[in-house]
Amino acid sequence: MLGPTVREGAIAYDEIASESDLPAGWTDEQAPGRYRLRRRADAALFGYAVGPHSWKRFLHPPRERLWRLRKNGDRIEAIAEPESAPREAFLGVRACELAAIGILDRVLGEGELADARYRARRSEAFVVAVNCAVAASTCFCVSMGTGPRARSGYDLALTELLDERGHVFVVEAGSERGAELLAELPVREASEAEIAQAAAQSERTAAAIGRRLDTAGAKDLLQSNPEHPRWDEVAKRCLACGNCTQVCPTCFCSTMEDTADLSGETAERWRRWDSCYTLDFSYVHGGPVRRSVKARYRQWLTHKLAHWIEQFGTSGCVGCGRCIAWCPVGIDLTEEVAAIRALAAAKETS
User: From edge to edge, which strands make up the β-sheet containing 2-7?
Assistant: First the structure.
């Protein structure tokens, strides 16, 4: 089973063996360019927002071997990596992360060019969602319509209730697999008061999310302002480090690496994550297309909030806020869109 645990000062998704591996009594404090863990006053198991990892790393791994070539006498044998996947349970998937997995399903799991390895991993994943009880200052899932309560895409969904009366979980089944497992567990029917308490907790969490992204017309706004002066301003701060793409639960860009041993007996092809912030990512004959930091940040933001809609029928952002918290200089995409919108509106009225 894969789930949240405390590792290196953050909530990370990793293999867990028992309840003792969960981050009991921990919560996170997030702000632009800042992430810290601190102790809670209770023993909540899921009393945090999101950490730097997303479930993408288990469905679309950071690095994987695709095939090998092996010399066998005068022959060269091609050995493809198996496309099967082990069964995994994902515990603690947030609503915004469910939305991100849904986007990856559309990008990597559908159509003629679907990734067979992704589809194999996805089909074997049993998803246990947990509705958010806290909101980080970087969250804006309400603006994106992706949270904080899970609506679909899960097998089971939990709402953790913890007060002076006790510590219980309200469980909902979202699939046949989930219902079958739930029928085997020692559970009782939730009371009307518990169901109301779970709904009220989700409402409080939604009300606590103060960050907003105005998505109305954002696609046309970004696509029609490629030379907006705000791109130059943000480029002065942006380090082009690619942190935002690495922590993003929907970024899927990758590159290929070919390796060979010194004897010349074997060769391998690996796929690894890449980023549109790297200079070589847009390299074609003659050099990179996007040489400046300005061009690379503009590409990322415009693709995420505009071009994705044309390509996949959905925005590429789910409002998890990771790109804001894990940007070393605290660049906030909601502020950037608002700034572009404000100046564009001022020009129209002048």
Answer: 10-15, 2-7, 88-93, 125-130, 156-163, 166-173
Q: Which residue has the tokens 């029609």?
A: 224
Contact assessment for residue 286 and residue 78, using Cβ atoms and an 8 Å cutoff: no
286: left (phi over 0), alpha (psi -120 to 50) or beta: left
Residues 185-230 have pLDDT tens digits of 999 999 999 999 999 999 999 999 999 999 999 999 999 999 999 9
Q: Which of 27, 154, 37 is closest to 97 using CA atoms?
A: 154
Instruction: Please name which of 80, 77, 201 lies closest in space to residue 132, comparing C-alpha atoms.
Output: 201
pLDDT, average across residues 40-55: 95
pLDDT for the residue 319: 97
Query: pLDDT of 246-270, one tens digit each?
Result: 999 999 999 999 999 998 899 999 9
Picking from 144, 71, 83, the residue whose alpha carbon sits closest to that of residue 114 is 83
Whether the CB-CB separation of 48 and 26 falls below 8 Å is answered with: yes
Model confidence over 108-120: pLDDT tens digits?
999 888 999 999 9
Instruction: State the pTM of this model.
Output: 0.93
